[in-house]
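Q: What does the assembled structure look like for these inputs?
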Amino acid sequence: MILEAVDISKKFPVEKGMFGPASARTVALDRVNFRLMEFTTLGIVGESGSGKTTLARVLLGLIPADSGTIRFNDAFISDFRKDVQIIFQNPYNSLDPKMRIKDALYEPLIIHSVCPRREMRGKASELLRIVGLDDAAMERYPSQFSGGQRQRICIARALACGPKLLVLDEPISSLDLTIQAKLLDLFVELKEKFRLTYIFISHNLSVIRHIADTVLVMKHGRVVEHAAAHDLFERPAAEYTRQLLEAAR
Amino acid sequence: MSPLLEVKGLKVDFHLENRIVHAVEGVDLQVRRNETVVLAGESGSGKTITTLALTRILPAPARIVAGQVLLEGRDMLALEEKKLYSIRGGVIAYIFQEPASFLNPVLTIGEQIVEAVIWHQRLGRQEAQDQGRELLRQVRIAEADRVFNSFPHQLSGGMNQRAFIAMALACKPSLLIADEPTTSLDVTIEAEILKLLTELKEKVGFSLLFITHNLAIARKISQRIYVMYRGRVVENGLTEDIFKDPKHFHTRELIAAYHKIGKL
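A:
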């Protein structure tokens, strides 16, 4: 087991008026429990507002949980900042528009002291090759790439420090279906190659079916079903899962 | 009977600072009355530009350089600008991917619908308000009165898209152009919106030209498909024939993606 989440809860204040105190709190996560095994992919599905992204942010420590614990297994996650990386939905917002690609790739290499300076160029070039881009990308800026290419650059950046766990928050949702299919193949390939563990968030059930080993179905901050992917798609237990599957057919 | 819309040899160029980009390179297409046609293809293939050219609402650097757009026999490209006012929205209406960015954030949904109704149907304010509420009911908004008085930011993406559809229908168009209207929505909401559009098309009686990169949607709603690639229509035909025997490699690519992740 690489990580265990126990009874994670999170509420957000609901703003009432511009200056008045928050009068109500909305439940974003309600006692979420799950275990994640190493080298597997956990798919998280649910509608907008079901708590998927809040869960990802809590797991990454980007926002604190109100209660509950997250335990990372030290055997896999010893240096949290290095070992756990995230890829967001919108590659347009995730890259600094004024930074050349090589500098965007050097940044994590420097911060995490991955390699000496003289080896950085070679390392950056290798990262680009891994995600299917070539050296010509190095000197360019993010605006010179398509959405799919930009997401590949984000993946290269995430891989720079040799992570163990990748949190993928709707990583292909904003792209064309043909590009989505290609990136999905890349994720599968990278997982094998680098022995990665994925938390893959998506509202697209067929994408989840394609990539996930186990699936967490969320609704209003709660886990309504957690099952092996095959079982979930063949024999959904929760009524809500059945509704989701029906809508996607 | 002649088709509702016939596009012949449409060409659109983008005049950029130091070069000219051919965005649409000779597109032919037809939409018949009460038909649902899908325009499929990857980003940048010219789908949106083609449909914006129909009523000449292209962004500044784009210029129509050749072709004809015959709407019920009249060439839209030859009409003077003024004559287009009643056609935009009145005969050809659009809905887009991000309804919230096309709705006015400082006006309520009701005010915006009423504005459209008054402009296109020349009704009085009270009648227009009644019709606005009726339109919201028509797009299956349960709490029509609440939504009527809400601002776009108070509503969900799906609800805004319904309101946007209501507004598009306010002008009783003959052709509704839907440009990826469900792409940013959840699967459950997407299914509802697609069902709604299909129902309304039958009930109200308009033709639907639907832009998507997702052939799962094409399979669900359309009778015919045009596949665009790099500014050209590379393949077109009946939806079932395209799925059975795709000819162009890009069509095959789209279908492969559909089989992989477009359906369950």
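Chain B has a mean pLDDT of 94.
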